[in-house]
Each structure stands twice: as C-alpha cells, then as structure tokens.
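Raw record, unedited: Phospholipid/glycerol acyltransferase domain-containing protein
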Amino acid sequence: MSYYFNRIWAKSALMLVAIPTEITGREKIKRSEQYVYCSNHFSLLDILSFGFAPNPVLYVGKKSLAKIPLFGLMFRKLHVTVDRENIRNRYQALQTAIEKMGNKRSLVMYPEGGIYSKDMPRMVHFKDGAFRAAIEKQIPLVPVTLPDNWIILPDVKSPLIKRKKMRMIFHDPISTEGLNMQDVPALKERVFSIIDEEIHKYYPKE
C-alpha cells in the first residue's frame, strides 16, 4: 500500500508544479531484494523523490515531519520518526526501522542526519546509522544522488519552486555480506565519495 501511495504522491506532486524527472540506474535494483538507500539531503523534496524507488521503502525522518497536515499522519503510521538531538532516541529509531523493514521493505536514510550543509551542494560528514543498518541486516547499500533538489526547492523559510529537471541517480549496490561494525568508517567514506563525485559532475567545485 505505502509503495503505491508514495509513487502516486511523488508523480502527482511534481506534475502539479510542472517539474520533469530523470531517473537513472533503477535497472540496477531488484524489486524483490532489500536495500539501504543512502542519499544526500539538501531539500524536503528529497523525501518525495523516493516515491520513484523501484521497491517499497521505509523512511527514517525527523519527528517534525509527523506534524505536517495529512502527510504527517501517513508518515507517522507507515514510517519511523526520530529526534535527531537525542542520542538514545536515534539508536531506538534505528532499531525500530530495522524491525519494521521485515523482509520486504528497503530503508531510506539520509546519512548527513538532516539538512545541515551551509555550503550547498557540499555535503556534511555522514553519521553511522545507515551503514550500521545495512551491515546488521547484511543487505546491499545503494548510494543515491539527488543533485538538483536544493535548487528546485531550497531549504529556506519561504521557498520559491524553480522549474528545473529533478534528477535522481541510483548507483551500483554495494554488498555488505561478511562485513562487521569495524567496516563502518570505510563503507561510509566510500559512499560519501560516490555521491560527492556525482554531485560535482553537475556542479563543479570552485
């Protein structure tokens, strides 16, 4: 149910504001398998974007999302909210998400931990949660690049939507089979590099 709701919601919302999409790399993803999707996070549009994921997904998002009219009710019932300022709550939310995934849903996480960059499109350092989840479940991790959302829907108090193509790039899945928690730093660095390199294909570093 949530899979179709997310897909309809994403397509309808972007059509309504005339935002075209370009989704690449979906052919690398097997709908019947589970993944942990890791994406850069510069805009609230990033959440909507995962309505285009090839398989059913579970989000871990900040608790304030649950307060958005209508959407918040759906998010609270179907996904997992987290208080990012509370270390204990972050751990509990991750464990809840792993349990709620079961053996059918994939997990969407934004390893920056929120929209924190003050120098977009540069990312801030990644947190461990997404990588720990992938290793604990022994499922592949998929880096995902959203290079344009920060321009389309800026993270400001009164944003104006810019009609620009929303690009979403699914990279090759990275196996976590046989990895343990000592491998988190190297895995985190690898994923950061993949997404960072892709972003700066479109927006070269100065």
